[in-house]
Amino acid sequence: MDRSDAGHALSNTQVKYSLIEATLNEAGNLLSLYWLCKVAGVSRSGYYNCLNVTRPNQQQRDQADQEDFKTILKAFFKHRYQKGSRSIHMTLLHEQTVMNRKKILRLMRKYGLYCKHRRPRTRKRIIRETQEYSIKPNLVQRQFKAFGPRTVLLTDITYCLYGQDKRAYLSTIKDAYTNEILAYQLSASLEVEFVLATINQLIEEEGMTLNHETIIHSDQGSHYTSMRFQELLEDHDLIQSMSRRGNCWDNAPQESFYGHMKDEVDIAGCQTFEALEAAIDHYMNYYNHDRYQWGLAKLAPRQYYEFVTTGYYPLADLIETPEIPAVRTCDVNESAM
């Protein structure tokens, strides 16, 4: 329905309300409001709203909507990444502004503001890699949130097409519990070195937060079955886990991250490897510190990690502090069964 059709439908509805009001005010009328609304195909609540909204009040409401929409628009483009209604709601909360999500949705529709959404993949092509060393059991079993932070760490590689048919590769390690990207490396080639560098970065920057139960979970790609990768994990007392062959759902949160990143970063617009590297760096910082997520108590991943480890909730003055989810101890032997 275009705007002209919508306006025509609204005009017809207002005419019906006017006829209902005139009928009710007629002398000797025996018809009830319920029956008149049912025959006219309108709601009683809509009729009452029409009576209460006068032209001056409507103008005032439009002015208020325009001011609120300016606030929404500012949040929509904050950090240069477009956002949906949930992200806008959380962004405003972190700016000490409380705005109901239904109101945000209403104003976005009213003024034609839309955020690009990911389309679900109906079919995924599975690439079989050469197994150089050995396949490890699936210890995670899709229990991504069961064991608390820094326990289940997901890793994978994705390609980035940029410039004139240029290709780069991104390796990341994601905390499945907090959704933080703990380490990442961008490479112009698929040599195993950049995957090893991702693990070394993890050890260097997050080593103090890891423990003897930390699991590195990946697919069965050749990088992760290689002797060099597996020996590196053993040297740092990290437990290795692998998805079942050809089952992307066993590493779904990592796949989801790549999908959102490619929707939000203009990778194709980067003409050089250095420009792509700068864009990835900017996005990773934004994602960890400013991309608020509904499933993380309306916090960014790094904030959520601080919340579950310290109990401090930065939105406590505005909304009720949620309960910290219960976790259980990771028993590797039990998971392997």
CATH architecture of the largest domain: 2-Layer Sandwich
Strand fraction equals 5-15%
Radius of gyration: 27 Å
Strand runs, count: 5
N/C terminus separation: 56 Å
Tell me about the biggest sheet?
5 strands, mixed
Shape: elongated
Strands of the biggest beta sheet: in what spatial order? 3-2-1-4-5
What is the helix fraction of residues, given as a range?
40-55%
Contiguous low-pLDDT stretches (5 residues minimum) are: 121-132
Enter the CATH topology name of the largest domain. Nucleotidyltransferase, domain 5
Number of domain units: 3
Q: How many H/I helices?
A: 13
**Sequence of secondary-structure elements:** HHHHHHEEEHEHHEHHHH
Regarding quaternary structure, how should these chains be classified?
A: single chain
CATH class of the largest domain: Alpha Beta
Main structural class = alpha/beta
